[in-house]
């Protein structure tokens, strides 16, 4: 793909991009990154980890390498999921600072310039989380998560500002590894502490890692380090992603506190309990109570729309939640069940002091 770079090269950043069948996204992703690199006037290397792609990722990257203002290196591996893909990229990175970037994320033109300025003002800050928004032009199926996001982190989203994620504030603002900058050594420690016991495709590649880093120091969520995420655009992709997200949701929070663990188990059991109660009521001829139960469940399921609207969620995001909710429920619940089974040992662990 590119000639082996000299070891004397000094990079301000090593950009690690895990990629699985992302050929259609990579040209625009690397194009936006190139513009940001030129604006910041810094030396970067890009490590793209091809996670067993079956599309023309290799040919696309070969065509893009020559025009990129930095080195582009490709690491190939069998499909093992984003956790192992990111780990492979981090191991290949030659800068002391690693920039994790998703293949669907468009970096804002001034994002890296703002990062350089902010890091110079506060050189002691070891980790930076970019502020990533979903592409508003996405089809409705891609905007479903706007409502949950504005429910959980509405206070921050109503007025985005620099925010420090620590042990105590970790759940107070949005975060993720889709656009994340940290010391290579800190990332290595966090990955090793979160290393999967089984199939790495079923473990979180963000929440557990970020929690480890935030617990050790802090993560600066900086709106000036901005980007846009292009979500899945097909119903099939949404369903598959929802199923996986249910499993990763369990891995992210199981065992991190009694309340969180109980909530996960309640969410897994609730559909079964509700369905059993409905069958019993109908069998007993109590159709009025059965109807009341259905109405209650529907109202409860749609109640996040009200909270999200208060937190200034965009109208199309609200509509996406209402339209896609019937499609979301079953695959997410099945993903939860899979997660509870796969990560069942996490529920039995003694709660560690750092999660108290």
Q: Could you walk me through the main structural features you see in this protein, from its secondary elements to its overall organization?
A:
There is one protein chain. Strands 1, 2, 3, 4, 5, 6, 7, 8 and 9 form a 9-stranded mixed β-sheet that branches. With about 350 residues, this protein is an alpha/beta fold. It has 13 helices and 9 strands. β2 (about 45-50), α2 and β3 form a beta-alpha-beta unit. Mean pLDDT is about 90; it is low at about 1-10 and about 350-355. The longest helix is centred in the C-terminal third of the chain and has 28 residues, at about 315-340. α11 (about 285-310) crosses α12. It has helices spanning about 25-40, 55-65, 80-90, 110-120, 145-150, 155-160, 185-195, 205-215, 235-255, 260-285, 285-310, 315-340, 345-350; strands spanning about 15-20, 45-50, 70-75, 95-100, 105, 125-135, 165, 180-185, 220-230. The termini are far apart. It has 2 domains: about 15-235, Spore Coat Polysaccharide Biosynthesis Protein SpsA, Chain A; about 240-355, no CATH class.
Features:
single chain, 356 residues, Spore Coat Polysaccharide Biosynthesis Protein SpsA, Chain A, 2 domains, 13 helices, 16% strand, disordered N terminus, disordered C terminus
């Amino acid at each position: 793909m590119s000639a082996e770079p000299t070891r004397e090269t000094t990079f301000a950043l090593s950009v690690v991009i895990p990629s699985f069948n992302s050929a259609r996204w990579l040209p625009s992703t690397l194009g936006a990154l190139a513009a940001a690199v030129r604006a910041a006037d810094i030396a970067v290397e890009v490590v793209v980890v091809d996670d067993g792609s079956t599309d023309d990722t290799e040919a696309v990257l070969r065509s893009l390498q020559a025009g990129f203002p930095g080195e582009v290196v490709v690491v190939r591996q069998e499909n093992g999921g984003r956790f192992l893909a990111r780990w492979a990229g981090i191991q290949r990175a030659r800068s002391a600072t690693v920039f994790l970037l998703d293949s669907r994320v468009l970096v804002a033109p001034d994002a890296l310039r703002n990062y350089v300025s902010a890091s110079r003002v506060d050189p002691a800050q070891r980790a930076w989380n970019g502020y990533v928004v979903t592409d508003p032009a996405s089809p409705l199926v891609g905007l479903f998560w706007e409502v949950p996001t504005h429910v959980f982190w509405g206070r921050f989203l109503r007025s985005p500002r620099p925010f420090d994620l620590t042990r105590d504030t970790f759940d107070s603002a949005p975060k993720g590894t889709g656009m994340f900058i940290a010391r290579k050594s800190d990332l290595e420690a966090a990955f090793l502490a979160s290393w999967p016991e089984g199939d790495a495709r079923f473990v979180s590649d963000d929440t557990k890692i970020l929690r480890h880093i935030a617990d050790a120091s802090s993560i600066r969520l900086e709106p000036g380090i901005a980007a846009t995420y292009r979500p899945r655009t097909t119903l099939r992709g949404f369903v598959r992603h929802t199923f996986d997200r249910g499993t990763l949701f369990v891995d992210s929070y199981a065992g991190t506190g009694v309340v969180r663990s109980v909530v996960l188990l309640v969410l897994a059991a609730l559909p079964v309990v509700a369905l059993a109660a409905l069958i019993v009521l109908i069998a007993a001829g109590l159709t009025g109570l059965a109807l009341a139960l259905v109405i209650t469940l529907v109202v409860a399921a749609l109640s996040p729309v009200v909270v999200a609207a208060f937190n200034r969620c965009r109208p199309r995001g609200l509509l996406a939640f209402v339209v896609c909710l019937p499609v979301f429920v079953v695959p997410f619940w099945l993903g939860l069940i899979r997660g509870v089974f796969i990560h069942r040992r996490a529920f039995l662990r003694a709660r560690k002091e750092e999660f108290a």
